[in-house]
Design brief:
single chain, 331 residues, alpha/beta, Quinone Oxidoreductase, Chain A, domain 1, Rossmann fold, seven-stranded mixed beta sheet, six-stranded parallel beta sheet, globular, binds NADPH dihydro-nicotinamide-adenine-dinucleotide phosphate
């Protein structure tokens, strides 16, 4: 089988496609109910960029096969819930980080980590959504659970031209929200408007730490893929009781310039979103909502097709904010 093998040597971390023996797939521990999946589609997420390049300390053991999400067909299963021929999807559970992932013709994972291919989605569509889009859905659900509803002030999406951001824009617009999309790439304005954004906010407006602890109440909520000073800035602009769903840190981990004032005087909230350890029931519920809330025709505009061979280079690019929308690999 073919796989991207990431190796670490004295000269650094390298990633390349190799032919390997299937017997090298993870064997698990005694009692694990493992499922072998013929991978049909996988994708590129920000974390894959880190795993391909050895960044972020995510990969502990080398050689390693990255790929934090994949879709495919069950080939063999110790788990009675899955039979050969079943179509399945995997996101999260640290697969592709501490367990070999989807950048290969086959993957072997615990049955608990899989979900059936969501109804209404093809495997390619499910992977066009992938971890980034699934997490956007979780973010929208969290914001709604905290009172956000269509018809109010605009909802901000940061890192809008990226994977998380693109899917968030499309979901929110489809649900009837007015969407303000933050991007550092002015050339992506037409793309973001085609996904449903009504306003484009230049990244430079929000990139710096806020100068004042509160600004005008401008946004009903925010899906934030950027973190850092931008999230601190966004918190000063939320309406009373508004929330920001903190999804990512493409712009940094430290909330430079943040104060407690938006929390004290505006009842603002930061809602942490973790797709990785999401339990099965809410995971299935979020996938169901992806199939109903995301206009699937818009997915086609977000997809860039790539091959396994392209992924090492694309992994370096995504870490620099150089990838638009979602990258899908068909194996
Ligand atoms: P992408 O690279 O596709 O998107 C990130 C976007 O952020 C870029 O496209 C760019 O958008 C913007 N950006 C990049 N660098 C900077 C910067 N220095 N300052 C401000 N904006 C910047 O990545 P993903 O969408 O796949 O992931 C985004 C984040 O979400 C990552 O940190 C990722 O790890 C995290 N994540 C978290 C999950 C969870 O479970 N919590 C799940 C999935 C992802 P633009 O060009 O439009 O400005």
């Amino acid at each position: 089988m073919r796989a991207i093998i990431v190796n670490k040597t004295d000269s650094g971390v390298s990633a390349a496609v190799e032919d390997i023996d299937e017997a090298r797939l993870p064997a698990g521990a005694d009692g694990d109910q493992l499922v072998t999946v013929k991978v049909t589609h996988t994708t590129l997420n920000y974390k894959d960029g880190l795993c391909l390049t050895g960044g972020g300390g995510l990969v502990r053991d080398y050689p390693h096969v990255p790929g934090i999400d994949f879709a495919g067909v069950v080939e063999a299963s110790d788990d009675p819930r899955y039979a050969p021929g079943d179509e399945v999807v995997l996101t999260g559970w640290r697969v592709g980080e501490v367990w070999w992932g989807g950048y290969a013709d086959k993957a072997r994972v615990k049955g608990d980590w899989l979900v059936p291919l969501p109804k209404g989605l093809s495997a390619r569509q499910a992977m066009a959504v992938g971890t980034a889009g699934f997490t956007s859905m979780l973010a929208v659900m969290a914001l709604e659970a905290h009172g956000m509803a269509p018809g109010g002030k605009p909802v901000l999406v940061t890192g809008a031209a990226g994977g998380v951001g693109s899917v968030a824009v499309a979901i929110l617009a489809n649900l009837g929200y007015e969407v303000a999309a933050v991007t550092g790439r002015p050339e992506q304005e037409a793309y973001l408007k085609s996904l449903g954004a009504s306003t484009i906010v230049p990244r430079s407006d929000l990139a710096d730490a806020p100068k004042r602890p509160l600004g005008r109440e401008t946004y009903a909520g925010c899906v934030d893929a950027v973190g850092g000073a931008m999230l601190a800035h966004v918190m000063t602009l939320l309406q009373y009781g508004g929330s920001a769903a903190a999804v990512g840190l493409a712009g940094g981990a430290a909330l430079e310039g943040a104060t407690v004032i938006p929390f004290l005087l505006r009842g603002a909230n930061i809602l942490g979103i973790d797709s990785v350890m999401q339990p099965r029931e809410p995971r299935l519920a979020a996938w169901d909502r992806v199939a109903t809330d995301l206009p699937l025709a818009k997915l086609d505009d977000m997809i860039a097709e790539a091959s396994l061979e392209d992924l090492p280079e694309l992994g370096r690019s995504i870490l620099k904010g150089g990838v638009r929308g979602r990258v899908v690999v068909t194996l």
